[in-house]
Each structure stands twice: as C-alpha cells, then as structure tokens.
Amino acid sequence: MNSIMTTNDNTTATSKLDPQDHPSKSVAESMIEMSQLMRPQHGNFAGNVHGGTILSLMDEVAYTCASRFAESYCVTVSVDSVEFLSPVRVGDVVRLKASVIMTGNTSMGVGISMIAEDPRHPGSGRRTNRCFFSMVAIDDDGRPTRVPKLRLETAEDHTWNCEAQLRVKLRKRYKDDLAAGACDLGSID
C-alpha cells in the first residue's frame, strides 16, 4: 500500500527510550496521521471499501502511533468497538488520525478516527470510522517492555482517556463474568 505518514512535529524516533530518563510524553507528541487513496482493489461490488481494508489501515496506524510513542516494537492485543459510521467509497482519500490516549506499564490505548473525502470535492470530508486499539510494547527478546507515562494536557485528552479507562473496565468485567460461568460456552463448537 502506498501510504504517507507524518507526525505532528515531523520527526521520527531514532533511539530507545528509557522511561526513567523521560517519564512522560503528551498525547500530542504521540499523534500521527496517515492518508491513502482507496483504489478499486479495496472495494466490493457496491463500490464501497471492504471493512477488512479499513481495519488493516487502522492496525497500521495504531502500530505506528504506539511504536513511535514507546520507541519500541509493538503488537496489537485487542480492538474495541470499531464503529462504521458512513461508507468509504472507492476513489475517496481516507485520513486516519491516531493518538495514544492511555498507558499502563507496558500497554497503550490508541484512539483512531478516520475521515473520508472525495478528492474532486475539497471540504467534502465525512467522519467514517472510530475505534480503540490496545497495544503492548515488546523488547528485542519478545518480552513486554515499559512504556512512557502519558501526560494529559487538554480537555479532549481527558475525555479520550476516560473513555479508554471505561473500555478497560468493561473488558475486565466481561472476562470476569465469562470466567465465573455467566454463559454456557460448552455448546459452542
């Protein structure tokens, strides 16, 4: 895929981050954008882009955002609540924005929003997708490694962070309920 990646300060990470030396990074420091033209091979018979193509783009931008923030290789642990708000059409240019919106010791929550625009009609952009990825930083030996703390600076940062914390709590409750036998999973083949 031919993608264009930029960061909010037009820099890239070049050295391994020591969290003790650099204890925090802001949400703004983690923000990246990726744009791509949706071509015929991305579409279905109706002329809309396949949902799997959109998920793949979101995974790429989540990885890039998390890796840049952690200055480490990162893996996707989960994807929550992918919202398909409006169809993306073949010929649209999509712009994905991603930011780290929550951190744990080795994990990061990445919030992603996507806008699609017909390039023949500047200003026609429409919000098409929104989701949350959980990523874990991995060291050179494949083990989870610490990530910087996240510094929340704006009201929007706090809102995204609150939503991310709620998602984590809901996911934990769901797992606990399943483990406690809330559902009979024995009948599923």
Write a structural description.
With 189 residues, the protein is of the alpha+beta class. The longest helix is centred in the last third of the chain and has 25 residues. The chain is built from 3 helices and 8 strands. It is 26% helix and 33% strand. It is globular, with a radius of gyration of 18 Å. It has a 6-stranded antiparallel β-sheet with strand order 1-3-5-6-7-4. The protein has a two-stranded parallel ribbon with strand order 2-8. Strand 6 and strand 7 form a beta hairpin. 29% of the residues are buried.
Strand order of the largest sheet: 1-3-5-6-7-4
Strand content: 25-35%
- Provide the residue-averaged pLDDT: 87
Structural class of the helix and strand makeup? alpha+beta
Radius of gyration of CA atoms, rounded to a whole number: 18 Å
* N to C succession of SSEs: EEHEHEEEEEH
> Got a strand count?
8
**So how many helices?**
3
**Residue share in helix:** 25-40%
Short description:
This protein is an alpha+beta fold. It has helices at 27-30, 51-70, 155-179, and strands at 4-7, 24-26, 32-37, 73-84, 93-103, 107-117, 126-138, 149-151. Strand 5 (93-103) and strand 6 (107-117) form a beta hairpin.
